[in-house]
Structures are given as structure tokens and as C-alpha cells.
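Regression report. Comparing outputs from two consecutive submissions.

Submission 1:
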Amino acid sequence: MTPYPRDTAGSQRFRFEQYLPSLSEQCESYDYQSFIDQNTWSVLYKKGYALKKAKGILLGFLRRFWMLRNLKVYDFVFIHREAAPIGPPIIEWLITRVWRKKVIYDFDDAIWLRNTTSENGLIAWLKFPGKVNHIISWSYKISAGNQFLMDQATSYSKSVVYNPTTIDTEHRHLPDSRVGNPIVIGWTGTHSTLKYLEVLRRSLELLSEASDFEFLVIADKPPSLPFPNQRFIAWDKQNEIDDLNRIDIGVMPLVDDEWAWGKCGFKALQFMALEKPVLVSPVGVNTQIVEHGIHGFHCRSEKDWVTHLNDLLKDVELRKSIGEMSRKKVIEQYSVESNRKNFLSLFE
């Protein structure tokens, strides 16, 4: 049970959808049901379309409750984040307390916190974020994306499994070396994470006064205020890897708060898998994924960003050596292949 249609949202694609072929080999069969259908997904993050969105949410609830009629045939119910995006956890309560099914509950953000943006202000108040702790306590197993999330889950459950967000390094995230000028510093994300780029603004302004570079932003919408030397590319799943391979140096700025502690370092992992050195704010799991000076650099201040970006801009061999070490770490610790058995163990 997922919030969004299959092969759309990043959290779904990189936390469990990559393992579905392996799951097919292990179990007799599985069914996949999203709350939001493809029609509603197409307008979900666009302004307007209120009636269409309301209809989509109503249909989502109807699908969920219709599914309950056939719940007896399932051995496990895998729920990513929540069964429904708004309201109390009624569906989860029915699945676990009435039908007595084994729920595997997967989450990759600090979703028990209220995280409000201009795009989701009303919905954020209807989400009932406190329901997360109830779902954890009712579930058979918890699949958590980092230690901070695990610590939260272990307060309510004894069956918590560390299940990192992973990268397909064999078929999808394949590095493609490029030679070109200017050197490209790059970031990728969504409208909800564009705010973190403000951490970089002053550093990029200072850097642009002395260095030649392009700042590539890949997202579903451009920053409201452009950055120095900015180039924007609208995120496209079909061109995702080709666009990321345009980047020479990846950046992942964050602010130091509880919501950021819950993040699973996916942007950093993508850059590393493609042999890009990455500069990160040393917040949460970023400090474990990126070892300072080996896979990239930790940047705590404006000076850190300017210094380490400048070093990487000037030294192609440094970029190359760090990139190679980065991909090696992803393959060994954060790849689909390295985590396959761990993920499948959730269904035991």
C-alpha cells in the first residue's frame, strides 16, 4: 500500500519498488495499491484543480476500504508511510486490530513531525502526524531508513529493521564521464527541498566572483530567486541519470533540525553512485554516508562551502579519486544488491 502510483515518487522507487522483481521470486504473488491514482497524481502539486484533487482523495479512500474486503488472502501488508494521506490511522487500525494482519511499516522521513510548506499548508494540518507512532506500535515489523528514525521507532516497537534507501548501481545509476567547461556544480530535489539551497546562496555568490562554473538545478520547479550562474532543468524520470551525469560536483545543503535528521541522504547517494564528489551539510545520516575528505566534504560554514568547492573546481584528479571512492562505498553499503537479502527478510 503506497501513497502514490507505482514508478512515480522517489521514496517509493528507491526504498522498495526496486526489490519487487526479487519479491516476485520469493512469494507466490503480491498486489500493489496506491492511494492517489495516476489521474490525480498528474495535478497533485499544481495550483488549482481543487475539485479534481478532492475527487481523487475520495476515490483513494474508497479503494482502500474496498481492499479490506479481500484482506484475508494476504499474509503481509506492506505500508509505505501511511495508508491514507489525511485523517487518523483508521485503515491501519482495521488491518492490524480487526483483520489481525502482519503489517510491515516503512518510512524514510520524520513524518511524525508537522512539516508545513506553502504548497501543503492545509493538508499538513489534516495529516494527523501523531498517527505514525500508533502505526509503529501496531505493526509486525518496522523498516526505517536511518538511525534517527530507528530511535523513534524503537520507542514503540521491538521489531525495527534498518533498511537504507538504496541505489541500483548495476542497471540504472551508471557513471558517464564528461569533459567540458565550465565545471558544473549541481543539486537535485523537489519544490519542498528548494528552501535548503538558500544555505548555499552567499557561498555561490562569493565563488562566482573568482571562479568559472555553472550551477545546475534539477527539480520540479525552479528557485523563485535564481542563483549565480544558474541553469535549470525540469526533472524528468526518463532523463534523470543523463541529467545527473551533467554534474561534476554534487551538493546537498541542509539546515540542522529534526526534519533534516530524518532524511536518508538520497541526493548524496545518487551523486556518489555516479562517481561525483559531494559536499554536504553534516546533518543526520549525511555524516555516515559521506566521510570527510574521502567521499566529499562536510561544510558547516560559508567558508567551508567556498573553500571545498574551489578546491574541487581546480583539481580534476581530486574530483576523480573522490568520485571513484564514493561509488565504491555505494556499491558495498547502499546498493540494491548489497541490501537485497535485508529487504526480503522483512517478509519472514
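Submission 2:
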Amino acid sequence: MLGSRLVRELRDLGCLVTAVTCQHNLPEASRGVNVTVLKADLVADNAVKEIVSLSKPDVLVNCVGLTSVDACEDHLEMAKLLNCELVGQLASAANSIKARFVHISTDHLWSGVDPMIREDVAIKPVNVYARTKADGERAALSNCLDTLILRTNFFGCSLPWRNSFDQWALDELQAGRQVNAFGDVYFTPISAALLVGKIIALVKLEARGVYNVAGCERLSKYDFVLRLAKRYGMDENLIRRASIEEINLRAPRPKDMSLDTSKVSALLGAKMPTFNESLDSINQLRSDHSNQY
């Protein structure tokens, strides 16, 4: 989802890109003369070493992860493999050729009691997903000297086989179905398009360490869907303010995942984007997922 958007942006900037896919093909909109596509199972024996040796990247960006919170509870070993062990392998491979390593992390790492968490606040995971992502951060930092970790929560990057949260909500509203959106769960979302731009800017600045890279506005999931509906002229009466306490979820979730972005704003010399700016970057309601970019 994020990876294909990043490939397209780098291609348009004239970079040579090697894109590694597994179950699905790289979307046609992200292909081009500067893009080499390799289909591989990264967890296979020696796969990471072989790909890195073949492509010899200056920068290796890891967008891989098991991101379904409930699936992580049900498939612990797979969560460990994709969210932690593979991260260490990729970081080590990058380090071996003196490449920079960029790892995409999450805003899901804390208990959700405090809002607008800074990078230096101790991690307090409440589920398997968060624990394995936290372990992945440690694996990245310990295996590559030149590592950049981005904690984030992005939207606006659906693919034909998987919807992002915003596209799911819009599809439901367009179909005239009620959307139950949590009024007691908060986050600081950023569009994938703007996040990609921040990733590239941070790489150019040779940033290292951990950065919160998210939107500057703390929104509830309810506010997110409501403002999305307003932007695209959808029926706001279909949106119901719900509580996460009403739902019997497989895994516990933090109620507040909002991130303080003052550190990255200071480095880049600009405030992180507002929600409206993220919506502007998406441009229009996408009925054709395959042509959304």
C-alpha cells in the first residue's frame, strides 16, 4: 500500500528503484523504465541477502509488516517473523553494504492513556502487534548503524485487493450503509502521498533515529469519517459515533495513538500537514482503486 506509492514517487524523481513484491503484482501506475520488479518471498532462506546483493541499494526502505492487529494475535510466529525477525535481516543486509535503512513503524506502541506521545516516551505495548513492532524497531537500530525509523498512521492508499480505512468508509457511505466510527479512539493521520514526501525529505537530510511522522491534528475516528464525508459530499447522517467499548475485539487496542510531531517539524523546518492538507493531496474521490494515484 505505502510501498507502491513510494515506488511511484521515486520513479518520477528519476531514481532507480527495485521493488520487491510477494503475493501481488506492483500496480501498473507504479511501474516504469526506472523500476525493476522482483517477486520474492523475503522470509525464504537467503532471500534478503540475495536481493540486496543483486540490487545494491543506497537506501533500503522496509514497508513489510503484518499489520492486522487481530491476525497478529492469532498468528504469533508470523507476526514475530514479519514484524521483527525480517526487520533485523533487512537492517543487517543494508549495514553490510553500507546502505541506509528506513523502517516504517507504527503509532500503536503505547497503552493509549496519554495523547500526543513524543519519541522519547517509553513504549508500553498492549497487544502482539505492538510488541512485535517494538521489537522490530530494536532489531533495526541494533543491526544497522544508519537507521531511520518512522512512526506513523497513514491513509489514502487503497489497492484493488485491500482498502485503506478512508476508502472503506467512503465505500460504505456511497452504498448508503451506516458507518460506526469510534468517538473515543484518537490518532494523527497523514495521507500516504504526503508521508512519502516526508520519507524522501528525511532521507535527503540523512536523518537517523526515531521520528514521529504524522499529521498535526489529533482526530477521533468519528471526526475523521465525518470530515471525510463532508469533503466528498456524503450523507453525514449515516455516520454513528460509536465506542470501542461496544465491540468485542480479538485484541486490546490503545484508545489514543496520537503522536507529537515537533521533532520532525523542527528538522524539516515546517509543521506537519493538517487533515485538510492530507485530503487535498488525495485530490478526488476514487471509485477506481486501480487508478487512485
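Expected: both submissions complete independently.
Actual: both completed, but the second showed a warning that disappeared on reload.
Relevant detail on submission 2: The first strand starts at residue 17 and ends at 21.
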